[in-house]
Amino acid sequence: MEQFAVTQRAAARIAEIVASEGRPAALRVEVLAGGCSGFQYRFALDETRQDDDLVIEQGAAKVFVDPASLDLLAGSELDYADALMGSHFAVRNPNAKSACGCGTSFSLD
Fold first, then answer.
1. CATH number, domain at 52?
2. Which of 15, 69, 83, 94 is exposed most, by the fewest CB atoms within 10 A?
3. Containing structural domain, residue 56
4. What is the pLDDT of residue 95?
5. Are 78 and 9 in contact (CB under 8 A)?
């Protein structure tokens, strides 16, 4: 199975956020049921690594992904977009068949 990748831009932003928090933490990336297309991405700072988490370390940045989410994220890439309409983390997911306009919700069929 292909892993989940993190771009340099996303890693740099994660490191900035964690440094501003002043506590050791990682960005947890999860896929949850819901959203307007069936699944939605959730991004949150998390200090606790679970035993079965995939841990991606890139420079000062760390990302946690649980196994259930990883199944839906295989081959995907986490990026950080700094655009006129707002800055946000974005997942480029080759498994998603459709996505909604918000960019955080997707469907597999």
1. 2.60.300.12
2. 83
3. 5-107
4. 76
5. no
Residue 48 has pLDDT above 90, yes or no: yes
d(C-alpha 41, C-alpha 43), whole Å: 7
Positive or negative CA dihedral for 38, 61, 71, 92?
Answer: positive
Residue pair 62/14 in contact by the 8 Å Cβ criterion: yes
Number of compact structural domains in the chain: 1
> DSSP per residue over 4-59, as a string?
-EE-HHHHHHHHHHHHHHTS--EEEEEEEE-STTSEEEEEEEES---TT-EEEEET
Cα–Cα distance between 16 and 19 in angstroms, integer?
5
Q: Over 70: is that where the pLDDT of 36 sits? A: no
Q: Is 1 exposed, middle or buried (0-12, 13-18, 19+ CB in 10 A)?
A: exposed
Q: Is residue 99's pLDDT more than 70? A: no
Residues paired with 107 in a beta bridge: 98
Parallel, antiparallel or unpaired: strands 61-65 and 26-33: parallel
